[in-house]
Structure formats: structure tokens, C-alpha cells
Design brief:
The chain is an alpha+beta fold and 143 residues long. The chain is 17% helix and 32% strand. It has two helices and nine strands.
């Protein structure tokens, strides 16, 4: 009788271990969003676009190229979740504070309406539908 109980417990333990391995994965897949930003129907030739997850608050950005195109990669995306989108001035990444102080960047007036640079007023949202490639084109209006 005791041998039979040991056998039952061993079988039960094997089932529990097997089922525990069948749970969902906590890893988030990589995803990329590509697209083009237009202002009043024309490509926005200078600026940046930022995507912020409404689920985690994590964000990623890219500067636009000369034809208003961009590519943003999320190493760990919230697939199926909504992202707030903002469009603003190009982001200059200068790490040398002394160089900036000695040669400050020229102030350039942005053509992008201010409302698009704030998550609460931009009105721009998208969902990363799938891991891998995603497309999101943006049409901004100056008025």
C-alpha cells in the first residue's frame, strides 16, 4: 500500500511540474513602428515622433528624415496595448555640456503646432497590433 501512494504522489508531482511549464511567458516581443508624418498634406522634414505606452509609461522616439519618415523600435513592446503619440522638434543628443555652452544650438522656430508635442493634447494614439513590423502614418493640421 505505501508503494502505491508513493507512485500516486510521483505521478501527481509530474503533472504539476508539467502544467507549471505551460504557463504564459512574461517576456515582451520586439516591435517596430514605421511611417510618415505629414503637416497639411506635405512631409514634415524636421521633427521627432515619440510613442509612450499607456500600460507601462515606457517610451521610444525617432527623429524624422527629410521626407518625414521614421522608424521606432521597441525592444520590449506592449503588443495589443495603446500608445500615446507626440510629434515635436527634432531631438539633439549632445552629451558634452561644455560644447553646448561654448556653441549653443541655433534656435529654430518649429512649424509643428504646440498641441502635438503634449500627450494630453495631441489626440494621437495607436496600438501596436503585432510583434515585428507595424505601420502608423500621421497627418497633422496647422489650424
Amino acid at each position: 500500500m505505501p508503494l502505491r501512494n508513493v507512485s500516486r504522489y510521483a505521478s501527481l508531482l509530474a503533472c504539476v511540474v508539467t502544467l507549471a511549464g505551460c504557463g504564459g511567458s512574461d517576456t515582451r516581443p520586439e516591435a517596430t513602428i514605421t511611417g510618415q508624418v505629414l503637416l497639411d498634406g506635405s512631409p514634415l522634414t524636421a521633427g521627432s515622433i515619440r510613442f509612450t505606452s499607456t500600460k507601462t509609461g515606457e517610451s521610444a522616439y525617432a527623429n524624422l528624415d527629410g521626407s518625414g519618415r521614421y522608424e521606432v523600435t521597441f525592444p520590449e513592446a506592449d503588443v495589443g496595448s495603446e500608445y500615446d503619440v507626440t510629434v515635436g522638434a527634432a531631438i539633439e543628443e549632445e552629451l558634452d555640456a561644455t560644447a553646448i555652452a561654448e556653441n549653443p544650438p541655433e534656435k529654430v522656430r518649429s512649424r509643428i503646432p504646440r498641441k502635438y508635442s503634449d500627450r494630453t493634447t495631441s489626440g494621437l494614439k495607436t496600438t501596436i497590433a503585432t510583434e515585428g513590423e507595424n505601420q502608423f502614418d500621421v497627418e497633422l493640421r496647422s489650424r
